């Protein structure tokens, strides 16, 4: 844990303690501090901006309700993420019969994968944007449990122990899910490449 | 190095990439990489994927997110915080002593399944043939004669002349019936009314509000609402999750034993979700609250926390699929307050909810179509199926639950579509006065029923199907429990051949929608307004 992370965690602890004593303002600060990360996590887990906002909101409200019982055995954001992951899981379970449309990723969906670096050659920019889009779509198609592990590792950049805590599974399971998730992504991207190649050949 | 060793090391490549291997494992992976070109290519691919994922754009949370959360927190006020603080100081069991949620859930579901079957099976031995009666008049006139057991049942005390909570007053023109708690239950074995409300509701259930007198003398109105399929279920569950909606389960039972069994089953099935909240509950997950002091032992409202409410409401997605009709009735609210639930049409009643925060209390009643049984929240409802013992025995599937045997209840649109299994609508539909629906769903046979499969068998099929849809992973265990329950019931029924009515054991799902914090009520709309 580096210095800033340590400060943040300490500060979280202080805010949590104040919130537990009934200081709603302290919880508001926690909300503002973690909303972006939480929203992004929910966005990647749900694939929809609307659902992500709802999930993030529900997670925060649930955290607020459960805060008096939070014993700070884990860090606040870990706990918050755990709530969000479980809410997303519950949500997906109910939605299973109506799986998320990939179209939703384009419209209502995740962040639009536009390359930020305008110093790049336009073609390269487009190429990067396309790759990012393909990767985002492949991620959205991943099985929920693999997706959660991969998102927490590769997007949230958490270590395996923290991910295990959030997902409430052993570290060995985290390791396996991350690896298998990446392997699925690799397969999906390879299939996508093959498809494009085939399309190009037909086009020619 | 053997193939399996290679495979194992390949499986470690991601952990190697993430720096999560110990020195020995790392050395082994590096040895593999040194000698295997495919392994190096795979590692490069995995790295590219990890880098690509890290580079995916990150969206900032919309400004409305924090605002809505903060508004929600402020809306809950200090009292909730204080209450939660009190809960946090309550003594807690050590973690090791807390039963595992999975175990509790499994037990609860088994108990619930057993309850379904106890009721579904029991009635085929116990329910006397229905008494045909005119379509109008008081329901009590149509109820079957009371057995000795029934006569000994202590009715919940309700002041004379005052309808029970959530029920319509006598003389209401549309429903034309008046009930008390007991008669609401008895009414299920009453004759069927014309099927004007049998299909998916696409129009208001009742155009005119029903007036009723309240204990405080205030005149309240009830406006049954109908939710169209595909309309509000998601909003409802989200509203629960966001804490704007509170779910109560009302349990009514004929005896204390039944009551305790019901509560235990619900408690087990809806035990507070440690996984969701991340913390164990500091207090029992179900908060019992006597609805009527005189019936304290037999009727309680159990408040269910949002995670459980999600579970309870999960099955309502069947409404979205057009498989069930969902009716919502308002029975109280802050004066003039509009429902704070997107997609729900109608105006709530003009009185505060008597036992909760000012809000809109609604009774969610769900019923089946096409012979599927209603299963909302895992609750066991009153099943009034079967006619006589012989018919019931004919209907009894040889393999317990039957696994879909028994005719499946007929296709939608068939003349008689009933589910003798679970029926949570209970007082909800009683309150709606939708006696046609009630009796259609009750499984009581009538002369027009020409379908070969007796109602109980159809109920079994519907019940099994309903359970399969909701809890596919648990169905095996549920069926096991159901079979055991059936055997037990068969033995019990043999010992006690005297007919009696089915246990008036019903769970009613009440949903209380709290007014939005800090927001002025939206303008009133007509009961039949639609999105």
3D architecture notes:
The complex is a heterodimer of chains A (204) and B (531). Chain A is an all-alpha fold and 204 residues long. Chain A folds into two domains: 100 residues, RNA polymerase sigma factor, region 2, helix turn helix motif (Rna Polymerase Sigma Factor, Chain: A, Orthogonal Bundle); 89 residues, Winged helix-like DNA-binding domain superfamily/Winged helix DNA-binding domain (Arc Repressor Mutant, subunit A). The termini of chain A are far apart. Chain B has 531 residues and is an alpha+beta fold. Chain B has two domains: 50 residues, no CATH class; 413 residues, no CATH class. Helix content of chain B is 40%, strand content 11%. In chain B, a hairpin with a 5-residue loop joins strand 1 and strand 2. The interface between A and B is large, with 72 and 64 residues.
List the helices and strands and how they pair.
The complex is a heterodimer of chains A (204) and B (531).
Chain A: H1 3-20, H2 24-46, H3 49-66, H4 76-95, H5 102-106, H6 122-141, H7 144-155, H8 160-167, H9 171-203
Chain B: H1 3-11, H2 13-17, H3 23-35, H4 37-54, H5 63-89, H6 101-126, H7 139-142, H8 148-151, H9 181-186, E1 210-213, E2 219-227, H10 233-241, E3 245-252, H11 256-269, H12 274-277, E4 287-290, E5 299-304, H13 306-314, H14 317-320, E6 324-332, E7 360-368, H15 389-395, H16 426-432, H17 435-441, H18 455-470, H19 475-495, E8 506-513
Antiparallel strand pairs in B: 1-2, 2-6, 3-5, 3-8, 4-5, 6-7, 7-8
